[in-house]
């Protein structure tokens, strides 16, 4: 392990760690110079259109493609029979059922061959000279089917027709965590038991950039141009599971990506037919989805039905929490689908509280709906949401202050490191102080006066608190290559991938901090699997912890090499060479050489002694570190118009502990985005299916997203407690906005309605739902 304790003071560097440096990615993107997958046009490329199932559940007897193959411009119509030599997509998560048996995974072919399992299931791919010709020919494909009954709700799936003959009751996993007997005893002895039935609604991800891909086959290699969250992992999945070829025969390339939030993390069925067609036809094949196809086929998020229970003693101390859930997997298991309602519920329902016992029992069920996968937070916001809703309702039932209950149960600074029953070990935090800071920043004490003023105007006003702590994904092995280029730039090579976060700027700040190279000279190479030897991709709020640590360790290796080289150039012993802020000097003198000049000298030298490095380049892989625990407190204040059910968020405050903050501007942007997505889920968003499994919310005409005029200005306060388990001290921030906003907004809504006798509503709380609740309460 290299020495990463380089003696730099962040405050003296304009572009160092902690400075609010504007995103360097933005000028290029704002000028329309970004390069997304659909921007690519390869010489001689053909175009593909996907034929999707219009049926939610049906036996597929035959696919008639004769007319489509004879249509003008068509080069091929690919069906399941053409792809028999390839592999299927599976979920290999090492999860076990309550009885110890393994997860019952599904095997998803690229194209349906025997059965149609949801509306949008790919059946055939038409390849033609033009996009219009491919789309026209797709209309000629005919399906011979026997319609079966469909099921869309996880709680009803056990009694529904089987999606797979070998998966009984449509249950892929009957998950159990915790000591059920001890939890039952705790509930039996409790002074109060709070119960809530909570629906965590299904979400369409709705990334700005629809999925798009181009398949190539050249020199015996498959090449896929695609927007994703990590080229290294996607390359491995395609090679190992789908194409069944050695990894060096597959290359994945990604340019700019217009959003993902978990949805573009893994392989999709469309990628194999494109690569197969490119190989068999000898020309690149391009496919770009339409928004209607995205609504049907992009993996959805959330979708849990939960019975949540909290046991408290007479003082309000937590004794145990129990979640009994149905998790909707959709028709096929995605790579991480079972994790959200199982392990991530376990790790995140604890939040920042002392909680002796946790029990989570979840049945992961198959339904005739679009597959579900990770969506910003992937079970982390949900766990916090369940706990915060339980706390609010328990406080009301017990006649206690919810703030006092939170503080009573907060993990105290002298309890760290804190071993949670979930298996997590929290390294540090300042939870009660953050809650107090949020209350002060939001003027919580003055709220009742504002409520009275709103009442005089005929409005219902409420305020809600959302304490949160989320367990990030543990950083995996991550590349931190550093390359000094001939043109005077320095390239960082990383296996994480920026799909909107601003990695280039943040990573450049870290490199500038630790090596002193000019900030404007730093470049980022991230989207080519051929350049990588490791890479965990971007997800789970771990990128800065993983890539930041990799860059720091790689920088230390550069310094070690630089001291050897500088000792030769400066004609001094290695022991006398010092390094500070981008310059190697002889101790006690003013003789030295800058790192960029030294790199150039090595590049230009043709006869160096064997002990002198020929460059300062390093290729380093950061091993890994434990997960981190970003936390904070959100306070939402809103008004409801009783006559219309319209909600206006009037104040929103967030105090956050993200550990060491590399770039406050980027962190604010991440927080804003997460908060807005939480607001969207609470107030606007819901995927709806008919009883027959038809998607009813299949366009933006039917599916609500928050807009700028739905949102207030956000007040953000930083209260950092540096993480002790990674070299940078960062905790991650990408998903935390959702974790705080879901409970804060819902608690504010319920607080506004509580005088009317309403103490719970399920998301989304649309104006119609609010209007009905208000008028039903009189």
CATH topology of the domain at 414-473 and 626-776: Aldehyde Oxidoreductase, domain 4
CATH architecture of the domain at 414-473 and 626-776: 2-Layer Sandwich
Average pLDDT figure: 94
- Rg is 28 Å
Helix content: 25-40%
Placed side by side, the strands forming the largest sheet appear as 3-5-1-12-9-10-11
Largest sheet: 7 strands, mixed
The CATH class label of the domain at 414-473 and 626-776 is Alpha Beta
Distance, first to last CA:
68 Å
Number of helices: 18
* Number of β-strand runs: 28
CATH superfamily of the domain at 414-473 and 626-776: Aldehyde oxidase/xanthine dehydrogenase, molybdopterin binding domain
Organism: Sediminicoccus rosea
Protein name: Xanthine dehydrogenase family protein molybdopterin-binding subunit
Domain Aldehyde oxidase/xanthine dehydrogenase a/b hammerhead: 31-149
InterPro entries: Ald_Oxase/Xan_DH_a/b, Ald_Oxase/Xan_DH_a/b_sf, Ald_Oxase/xanthine_DH-like, AldOxase/xan_DH_MoCoBD1, AldOxase/xan_DH_MoCoBD2, AldOxase/xan_DH_Mopterin-bd_sf
Please tell me about this protein's structure.
It contains 18 helices and 28 strands. It is α+β, with helices and mostly antiparallel strands. Among the domains are: 99 residues, Aldehyde oxidase/xanthine dehydrogenase, molybdopterin binding domain (Aldehyde Oxidoreductase, domain 4), CATH 3.30.365.10; 211 residues, Aldehyde Oxidoreductase, domain 4; 148 residues, 2-Layer Sandwich (Aldehyde Oxidoreductase, domain 4). It has a seven-stranded mixed sheet, sandwiched between helices. Strands 7-15-14-13-8 form a five-stranded mixed sheet. A four-stranded mixed sheet has the order 18-26-27-28, with helices on both faces. Helix 13 packs parallel to helix 14. The mean pLDDT is 94.
């Amino acid at each position: 392990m290299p020495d990463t304790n380089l003696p730099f003071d962040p405050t003296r560097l304009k572009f160092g760690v902690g400075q609010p440096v504007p995103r360097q990615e933005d000028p290029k993107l704002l000028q329309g110079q970004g390069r997304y997958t659909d921007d690519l046009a390869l010489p001689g490329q053909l175009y593909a259109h996907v034929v999707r199932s219009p049926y939610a559940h049906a036996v597929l007897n035959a696919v008639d493609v004769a007319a489509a193959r004879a249509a003008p411009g068509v080069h091929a119509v690919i069906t399941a029979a053409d792809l028999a030599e390839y592999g299927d997509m599976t979920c290999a998560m090492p999860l076990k059922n309550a009885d110890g048996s393994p997860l019952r995974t599904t095997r998803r072919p690229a194209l349906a061959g025997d059965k149609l399992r949801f509306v949008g299931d790919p059946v055939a791919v038409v390849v033609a000279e033009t996009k219009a010709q491919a789309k026209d020919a797709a209309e000629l494909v005919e399906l011979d089917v026997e319609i079966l009954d469909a099921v869309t709700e996880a709680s009803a799936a056990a009694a529904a027709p089987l999606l797979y003959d070998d998966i009984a009751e449509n249950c892929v996993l009957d998950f159990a965590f915790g000591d059920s007997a001890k939890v039952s005893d705790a509930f039996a002895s409790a002074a109060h038991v709070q119960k809530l039935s909570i629906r965590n609604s299904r979400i369409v991800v709705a990334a700005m950039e629809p999925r798009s891909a181009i398949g190539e086959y050249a020199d015996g290699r498959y090449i896929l141009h695609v927007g994703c969250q990590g080229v290294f992992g996607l390359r491995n999945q395609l090679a190992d599971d789908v194409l069944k070829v050695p990894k060096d025969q597959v290359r994945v390339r990604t340019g700019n990506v217009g959003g993902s939030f978990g949805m573009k993390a893994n392989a999709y069925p469309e990628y194999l037919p494109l690569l197969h067609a490119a190989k068999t036809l000898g020309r690149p094949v391009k496919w770009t989805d339409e928004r209607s196809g995205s609504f049907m086929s992009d993996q959805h998020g959330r979708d849990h039905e939960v019975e949540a229970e909290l046991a408290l003693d007479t003082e309000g101390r937590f004794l145990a929490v129990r979640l009994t859930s149905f998790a909707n997997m959709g028709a096929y298991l995605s790579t991480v689908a079972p994790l959200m309602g199982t392990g991530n519920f376990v790790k995140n329902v604890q939040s920042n509280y002392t909680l002796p016992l946790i029990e989570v029992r979840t049945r992961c069920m198959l339904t005739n709906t679009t597959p579900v996968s990770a969506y910003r937070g992937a079970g982390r916001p949900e766990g916090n949401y369940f706990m915060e809703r339980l706390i609010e309702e328990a406080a009301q039932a017990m006649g206690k202050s919810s703030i006092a209950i939170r503080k009573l149960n907060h993990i105290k600074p002298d309890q760290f490191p804190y071993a949670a029953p979930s298996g997590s070990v929290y390294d540090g935090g300042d939870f009660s102080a953050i809650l107090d800071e949020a209350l002060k920043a939001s003027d919580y004490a003055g709220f009742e006066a504002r409520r009275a003023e709103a009442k005089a105007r005929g409005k219902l006003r409420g305020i809600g608190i959302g304490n949160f702590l989320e367990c990030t994904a543990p950083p995996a092995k991550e590349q931190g290559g550093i390359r000094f280029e001939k043109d005077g730039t320095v390239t960082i090579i990383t296996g994480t991938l920026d799909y909107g976060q601003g990695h280039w700027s943040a990573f450049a700040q870290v490199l500038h901090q630790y090596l002193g190279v000019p900030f404007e000279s730093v470049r980022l190479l991230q989207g080519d699997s051929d350049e990588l030897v490791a890479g965990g991709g971007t997800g789970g709020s771990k990128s800065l912890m993983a890539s930041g640590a990799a860059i720091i360790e790689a920088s230390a290796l550069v310094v070690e090499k630089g001291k050897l080289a500088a000792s030769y150039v400066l004609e001094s012993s290695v022991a006398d060479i010092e390094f500070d802020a981008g310059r190697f000097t002889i101790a006690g003198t003013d003789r030295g050489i800058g790192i960029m000049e030294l790199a150039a000298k090595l590049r230009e030298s043709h006869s160096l002694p064997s002990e002198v490095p020929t460059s300062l380049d390093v290729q380093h892989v950061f091993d890994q570190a434990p997960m981190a625990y970003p936390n904070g407190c959100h306070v939402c204040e809103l008004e409801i118009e009783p006559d219309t059910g319209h909600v206006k968020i009037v104040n929103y405050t967030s105090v956050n502990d993200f550990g060491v903050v590399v770039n406050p501007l980027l962190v604010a942007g991440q927080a804003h985005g997460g908060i807005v997505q939480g607001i969207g889920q609470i107030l606007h968003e819901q995927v709806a299916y008919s009883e027959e499994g038809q998607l009813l919310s299949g366009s933006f005409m039917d599916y609500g997203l928050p807009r700028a005029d739905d949102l207030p200005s956000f007040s953000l306060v930083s209260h950092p407690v540096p993480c002790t388990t990674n070299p940078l001290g960062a905790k991650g921030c990408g998903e935390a906005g959702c974790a705080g906003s879901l409970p804060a907004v819902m608690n504010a809504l319920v607080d506004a309605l509580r005088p009317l006798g309403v103490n719970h509503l399920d998301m989304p709380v649309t104006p119609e739902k609010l209007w009905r609740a208000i008028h039903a309460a009189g």
